[in-house]
Specification:
Layout: E1 3-16, E2 25-38, E3 42-46, H1 53-60, E4 68-73, E5 76-77, H2 86-91, E6 92-95, H3 109-120, H4 125-138, H5 155-167, E7 173-177, H6 185-202, E8 206-209, H7 213-219, E9 222-227, E10 230-236, H8 237-242, H9 247-254, H10 258-270
Parallel strand pairs: 3-8, 3-9, 6-7, 7-8
Antiparallel strand pairs: 1-2, 1-4, 4-5, 9-10
The protein binds adenosine-5'-triphosphate (ATP) and magnesium ion (MG).
Length: about 280
């Protein structure tokens, strides 16, 4: 199995300017984390608010340069400090939590989907249109949605559009930062199933950030638990769920409500997978 993502000692500090009499403060948001993800697999990243998940996501998606450490995607070094080429940019895409904020309200869905092709490929207008139509169908929407604006869709449909946009350039890696947290439970299950189906069909590789353990259990191959910027747990889903080793993870798992376990079973059953 080939490795898509290799992160070694990734670190990110933020310097916050002090006031007149207070010195500049440094926040060590991510303190040197290492992990890898193989093609077609999902790594879930879990941890409480402020532990550094989104900071890590911004480094993985080349939005932010790490303070130290290295990142390789498909074996190629991604040195953001030296500049991000469009070839690097195509390799990794992100889907955010909030489908309302991440889509331009003045852009029709067709333009949302064709824009990455316009900026990064030599395809003709009709080829771009054809690819966008096909992607709409792949994410469970239809050609009739091509000329509509984002406000004409439900939250779940908007997240489908965000996923479609992220896939337009065939990225090697998709980073999903709490992609279903803002959605109703039933819609969450539909989007999770869509992501699982797309992964099977296209061999996609995911880094999936979530604070919901039932979701993590459903989608993850590997699980990484972060705590104050450090990795405190890293292993296969079954290893981490069967025998959490760090005190924080034990507490996190103990506090998972019973209803979540029921909802995992329901989702697993809906997909025909054996309930864990
Ligand atoms: N641009 C920034 N400038 C200064 N500090 C920041 C910045 N972004 C994040 N931080 C700090 O870094 C730490 C990690 O933040 P981050 O957003 O990565 O957490 P998170 O795990 O994604 O949290 P949540 O679950 O709430 O989304 C926090 O202490 C946060 O206040
Ligand atoms: Mg976050």
């Amino acid at each position: 199995m080939s490795t898509v993502l290799e992160a070694r000692g990734l670190k990110r500090d933020y310097h916050i300017a002090g006031g007149l009499f207070s010195p500049t403060k440094t926040v060590h948001a991510v303190k040197g984390v290492s992990f890898s993800v193989d093609r077609g697999q999902t790594l879930a990243i879990v941890g409480e608010s402020g532990c550094g998940k989104s900071t890590l996501a911004r480094m993985l998606t080349l939005i932010d340069a790490p303070t130290a450490g290295s990142l390789h995607i498909d074996g190629q070094p991604m040195d953001v400090a030296k500049g991000v080429t469009s070839d690097m940019r195509r390799k990794v895409q992100i889907v955010f939590q909030n489908p309302y904020g991440s889509l331009n309200p003045r852009q029709k869905v067709g333009d949302v989907l064709t824009e990455p092709l316009l900026l990064n490929t030599d395809l003709s207008a009709s080829q771009r249109r054809e690819k966008a139509m096909a992607m709409l169908v792949k994410v469970g929407l239809g050609p009739e949605h091509f000329n509509r604006y984002p406000h004409m869709f439900s939250g779940g449909q908007r997240q489908r559009i965000a996923i479609a946009r992220a896939l337009m350039l065939n990225p090697s890696l998709l980073v999903l930062d709490e992609p279903v947290s803002a959605l109703d439970l039933s819609v969450q299950a539909q989007i999770l199933n869509l992501l699982a189906d797309l992964q099977d069909e296209l061999g996609l590789t995911y880094v999936f950030i979530s604070h919901d353990l039932s979701v993590v259990r459903y989608i993850a191959d590997k699980v990484m638990v972060m705590y104050y910027g450090e990795v405190v747990e890293y292993g296969t889903r079954d290893e981490v769920f069967a025998a959490p080793s760090h005190d924080y993870t034990k507490k996190l798992f103990a506090s998972t409500p019973r209803a979540d376990i029921e909802s995992i079973r329901a989702r697993m059953a809906a997909r025909g997978a054996p309930a864990a």
